[in-house]
Amino acid sequence: MLVTIPEETPVNEAIETAFRVEDETGVFLGPVVVNRCYRRYEHLDRDPVKAAHDVGLDIDDAYAERIRAAARFRRGRQDLQLGQVARLARELPLAHMELPHEMAIEFGPRELSDLADAFQDAIGAL
Prior knowledge:
The chain is mainly α. It contains 4 helices and 3 strands; from the N terminus they run βαβααβα. It has a 3-stranded parallel β-sheet with strand order 1-2-3. The radius of gyration is 19 Å and the shape is elongated. The two termini are about 15 Å apart.
């Protein structure tokens, strides 16, 4: 099994390595693990002023603009990752499993358990 992250250079390297391993050694590879995938959020384009208002909060324009900037950044990263995962699927005829990016200051037992659960779910989805 090869492991990559959903970014251009690591995906390039995974594709090249997979073909080289199979061509030069005759070893058949299993699914590719795509690690550190951002969870996909559909609400990133939602207006932060309205969203805050819907839960009983008021935010000023400056704060709303910081939220919009963060959402644009996250949308860009999310779109970049989706594009790289799609390219991997197109260019490498192997199944792949996506594992989430664990957003934690320290990687401890809870994060390991979450990652193990995601791995088990990805195996089941194959």
